[in-house]
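Hey, resending since the last one bounced:
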Amino acid sequence: MSVPATDRPASTEHTEHSVESLGSWLAERIALYLKRSPSEIAATVPLAEYGLDSVAALSLCGDIEEDFDVVLEPTVAWDYPTVEALAGHLAEELRALAGEAR
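The structure tokens again:
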């Protein structure tokens, strides 16, 4: 259920990540999986309420790994069940990785 490379943003180089920008990225990606508009994905609504299943969650983890070079557990969509929670967690992970690289 991965999104074809042609649907991805041209630049996969990420430097600074705000929770807001990560939330937008997540909403866009989740909307693609669920065949919805990103504006329909509210940051505080549990992803399971939209019908996000384990296959889509696993694909989302793969997209995060590919685009941000960070590996997350496949259960991350259930551990952080909203776009807001997941974006916050992802921002923390990226900050930690950036700190290790310095």
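The chain is about 55% helix and 0% strand.

Sorry for the duplicate.
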